[in-house]
């Protein structure tokens, strides 16, 4: 009985083991369910140059610097390429780059010509006191250069033997005319002619009528004669010295009437066509930064300075309170605008290559078309468009060069290379250390770590700043995190830069 039970138990165990093995084998052979996050294999399109140059390859290779070409997979290139000559950027990139547009519109073009000049006395209001006879300075009444004088104020008294003799001659002739009243006509005529000759001689020496009347009334010759200021002004030159001898024609005093002055400005050659006689001008000087003086262009000189390529322009203006001093440095603004309506766009909308001018037309849905235009005169912040646009066209006025970097605009314009397959995103991120900064050139030398999006190894290279404000606070040795784009083949521009610690802290918070 015991042996029979043992055999039965062994049989049950064997059957159970066989069934369990079959069940376990069946479970192990069932293929696992696919993972939810598994991605399908991507199709390789081509390999592009790691430095962004217009060079692609169908097989892996290295550039002259030993860097591997970057693979571009299906889906990374533009799904629906833009028409030839058109640029397409997604909405996220447009917002990040800060693209802004304005419409071309008809409006008066306000033009301002700015130039530097200097204040000078009005040459028509300069007066020189120069005796016409020989004599001596007997007494000085005004003996300081720069002293203000009134019209008719005595400047100095002069003694001249020649003048005394001429006065005596006139007195004798006048007395002779009086004594010959009852004489014959011929005698009276001869004496009158002698008296008139003596009088003319005194007048030719600039003896005033008042002095001549006093001489005729007194009947005695005066030893000295007074010289008066012919105008109210400032003594700008004094050569008279008390007791000194002077000769006919010697300039003893110069008096300037500064109630009106000139500003002699140097206007650049390209602005001469817009400047015109009679145009209103605003003049400012450093001495009175809160004041402006109004004047008008009185004369455009007919010559150009070959060294500075400028033309002198004379501005005449009033000088209330004599605030403007000769020799002052002045800045002028000439209103050369016109009331005529012309088609204009903001100056920032124009991309000027030197040989042609191009604007970017916003077509909507992130599409931009470069269009060559012909420009006219320039205003304060706008420029006239003669050909290539019509009123209402939306043009890009901000981030033009970043669109250029984002889309390789030069290739789109067809000026440098044939169209290449669209590359992967050109916005890249990296971290590094600031080696040096060139503020004048707007560049920075960075030692950065590997750039995964470009498959760059760690290295040192030079970047440019998108705008000068990005340089603020940067110092050599600072650790930074930055984003950059390719503005032109081989030209890399930083669009965002911040301390690396801030970035690390932000990731830690997430």
Sum up the structure in keywords.
elongated, 37% strand, disordered N terminus, Elongation Factor Tu (Ef-tu), domain 3, 6-stranded antiparallel β-barrel, 7-stranded antiparallel beta sheet, conserved putative lor/sdh protein from methanococcus maripaludis s2 fold, alpha+beta, disordered C terminus, single chain, 510 residues, 5 domains, 8 helices
Give a description of the structure:
The chain is an alpha+beta fold and 510 residues long. It has 5 domains: 44-73, no CATH class; 87-109 and 340-413, conserved putative lor/sdh protein from methanococcus maripaludis s2 fold, CATH 2.40.420.20; 114-122 and 258-333, Elongation Factor Tu (Ef-tu), domain 3 (Beta Barrel); 131-250, no CATH class; 428-509, OB fold (Dihydrolipoamide Acetyltransferase, E2P). It is 21% helix and 37% strand. The protein contains 8 helices and 31 strands. It has helices spanning 2-29, 91-97, 161-179, 185-204, 209-218, 400-407, 409-413, 500-509, and strands spanning 44-48, 56-57, 70-73, 87-88, 100-103, 105-108, 112-121, 126-129, 135-140, 148-149, 154-159, 224-228, 233-238, 245-246, 253-256, 260-268, 280-285, 293-300, 310-318, 329-335, 341-346, 351-352, 357-364, 367-378, 382-387, 394-398, 428-438, 443-448, 459-465, 479-488, 491-499. Strands 4, 6, 21, 22, 23, 24 and 25 form a 7-stranded antiparallel β-sheet that branches. A 6-stranded antiparallel barrel has the order 7-16-19-18-17-20. It has a 5-stranded mixed barrel with strand order 27-28-29-31-30. The chain is elongated and about 140 Å long.
């Amino acid at each position: 009985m015991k042996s029979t039970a043992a055999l039965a138990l062994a049989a049950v165990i064997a059957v159970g083991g066989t069934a369990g093995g079959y069940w376990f084998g069946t479970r192990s052979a069932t293929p696992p369910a696919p993972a939810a996050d598994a991605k399908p294999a991507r199709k390789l399109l081509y390999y592009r140059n790691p430095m962004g140059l217009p060079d692609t390859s169908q097989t892996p290779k290295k550039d002259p610097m030993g860097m591997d070409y970057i693979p571009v997979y299906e889906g990374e290139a533009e799904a629906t390429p833009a028409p030839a000559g058109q640029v397409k950027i997604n909405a996220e990139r447009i917002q990040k780059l800060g693209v802004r547009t304005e419409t071309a519109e008809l409006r008066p073009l306000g033009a301002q010509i700015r130039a530097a000049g200097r204040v000078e006395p009005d040459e028509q209001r300069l007066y020189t006191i120069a005796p016409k006879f020989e004599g001596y300075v007997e007494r000085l009444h005004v003996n300081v250069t720069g002293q203000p004088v009134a019209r008719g104020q005595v400047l100095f008294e002069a003694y001249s033997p020649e003048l005394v003799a001429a006065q005596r001659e006139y007195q004798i002739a006048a007395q002779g005319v009086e004594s010959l009243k009852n004489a014959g006509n011929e005698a009276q005529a001869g004496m009158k002619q002698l008296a008139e000759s003596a009088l003319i001689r005194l007048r030719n020496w600039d003896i005033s009528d008042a002095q001549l009347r006093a001489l005729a009334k007194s009947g005695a010759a005066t030893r000295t004669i007074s010289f008066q200021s012919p105008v109210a002004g400032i003594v700008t030159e004094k050569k008279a010295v008390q007791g000194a001898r002077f000769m006919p024609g010697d300039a003893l005093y110069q008096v300037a009437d500064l109630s009106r002055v000139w500003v002699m400005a140097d206007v650049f050659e390209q602005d001469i066509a817009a400047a015109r006689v009679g145009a209103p001008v605003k003049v400012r000087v450093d001495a009175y930064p809160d004041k402006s003086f109004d004047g008008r262009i009185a004369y455009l000189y007919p010559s150009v300075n070959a060294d500075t390529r400028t033309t002198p322009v004379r501005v005449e203006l009033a000088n209330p309170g004599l605030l403007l001093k000769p020799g002052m440095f002045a800045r002028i603004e000439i209103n050369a605008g016109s009331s005529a309506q012309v088609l204009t766009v903001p100056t920032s909308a124009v991309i000027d290559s030197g040989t042609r001018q191009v604007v970017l037309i916003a077509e909507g849905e992130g599409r931009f078309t470069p269009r060559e235009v012909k420009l006219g005169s320039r205003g304060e912040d706008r420029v006239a468009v003669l050909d290539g646009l019509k009123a209402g066209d939306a043009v890009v006025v901000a981030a033009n060069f970043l669109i250029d970097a984002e889309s390789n605009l030069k290739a789109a314009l067809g000026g440098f290379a044939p169209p290449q397959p669209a590359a992967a995103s050109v916005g890249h991120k990296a971290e590094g250390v600031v080696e040096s900064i060139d503020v004048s050139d707007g560049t920075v030398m960075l030692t950065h770590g590997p750039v995964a999006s470009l498959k760059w190894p760690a290295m040192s290279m030079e970047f440019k700043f998108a705008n000068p404000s990005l340089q603020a606070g940067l110092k050599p040795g600072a650790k930074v995190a930055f984003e950059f784009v390719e503005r032109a083949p081989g030209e890399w521009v930083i669009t965002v830069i911040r301390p690396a610690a801030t970035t690390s802290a932000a990731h830690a918070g997430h």
